[in-house]
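Bench notes, bay 3.
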Amino acid sequence: MAVTVEAPLWVLASGLQSESVEAQPLCDAGGSERDAVDAVLAPGLWACWCAAGALLVCCWCAADSLSCVTAAGGAEDQIMQVPQGPMGLQDRLDSSPVTASTTIESLPKSVKRRVNTLKQLQVQCAHIEAKFYEEVHELERKYAALYQPLFDKRRDVVSGAVEPTDEECEWQSDREDEEELAEELKKKATVEENKEAASTEEDPKGIPEFWLTIFRSVDMLSDMLQEHDEPILRHLQDIKVKFSEPGQPMSFTLEFHFEPNGYFNNSVLTKVYKMKSEPDPSDPFSFEGPEIVYCEGCDIDWIKGKDVTVKTIKKKQKHKGRGTVRTITKQVPTDSFFNFFNPIKVSPDGELDEDSEFTLATDFEIGHFFRERIVPRAVLYFTGEALEDDESFEEEELEEGEEEDHEEDGDEDEGDYEPKA
């Protein structure tokens, strides 16, 4: 049987221990028939007089409950437990993680109703935002028509159909030493012109391997590029972006224009990306703008034996009865950039395995990159200037992240820092 007792609390006043009060136990904790004795230190009021003067010091002291349990016969060690008081409970409540569900559940019913009203307003905002992006798409379509004559001129220069004038070829370089070397370059140019006149080699037409160079330079595209793709991409003359017409579902089409070649009969290969710009009724708050939801390629009319998306393998088969061996050939898929025009087909239920989802997401990313970066800024990717900009942006992000890591490491190290004497 547990016995609850009270014991005095020592009080220190003015740095002196009171000698007039002697601690006395009110109960003997021994006894073979007792399983445990709980000693509780209760709040006490003590008064002591200082010897230097008649100063009465009153101290109110509140102590947490202390429970002491002793096993019979002393066979087990004592276990000291200090239950939390009211302040400890408040600390636990304050330190408990706050989530959206716990926040809402803790609100009064009248406040919950008002929060629901705000959610209804937020859904209306999402629908207005969807209309905004639809108008942005129309604006893109409008300005695409203004860009196209310039892109057509770019195509003609790249293919060699048009030779630019001297005025069009002038470009002010940013190099500081260009003016200093101008005279020297003129002298060297004269010598080179004489050599070229004597040479029987013809000038290259247009800008050779313009698009192939871009494919090789951009990591996202070079990962798709195979050695057997390169001879075909040398015939690529232009890449265009076409936007859907007014009143049609939002989409854009990539057009890859090829000159006649010995690989396929198509002059244009297309890839259509269909987009959605409306909140999902089941999750309207996830809407963040237009997203690609489906893509569709085209059939490539390969010349016999020139299909680079498949490879031919030979297999030997042994007849079970006669034991004769025969060799058969079969075609199996192989890696190629031109698989880009044969994307994964999404089933009506929309269920894909993890690998297919990753492949489709990568396809969407590549299509968006063609539309937003490659086509509008092709010459800068050919020269590498756009690549330098992209790398600088990534390096800046990385440096900022490293600085944050160093700051966190520094904070941790400061706690262990011990100054030298």
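Next record in the batch:
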Amino acid sequence: MKSRMAENSEYFSIGSTVRIVTCHNVEMRGEVVAFDVGTKFLILKSPTAGKHGAFDMKVVNLNLVSDLCVVSEGPSSPPPLGSVNIAKVQSRVKQSLDEKMRQLNLVGIDVTPEGQQLMNSISKTIVDVRWENQNIVVMNTVVIKPPYRVDDCKVFKECPGNAQVLAHISKIVEKHHSDEMNRQAQLQNDSQKSTSPSPAPSSPASSAS
């Protein structure tokens, strides 16, 4: 086993196995996947605990490493790089961007906190939801106007199936307000407990009497 301090490291062979101790005295071990000389960033691969065939990737800043040992050297020539499915990568990037935009559009402008909280609750189970000024529009079928109670849920127009959608959205709104009332009651109860004075200890004379 070769000991090699981080400040003296010039390179690491791909496929080598190293053991690292950080400046916080955290030890880790893994296979070298990549190493950047300029930044002294080392990427290690290690098996994921409890998941057969899965691996964790860790980026290590060697400037924050107190000790490093090369347990075993990698092959003389690095293994060939695996093929990259560009279409799949682009699809994942697009999905991520679309989701970020959806999350951004869920934030209302000049809406009340109660309206925003209801929007957040609905969006957890229904993707097709958006703001239209201060109104919440769900599935282009139901509109919820301030103050966002069950009675404020209306369909745009009477069509077959819209009544079922309205009933479903109304249940979501009712549950949201019920959960919010329970949460506020719990917070108030906890606050009262924390501010209630402790009972005074009994004096010896009182105990004797």
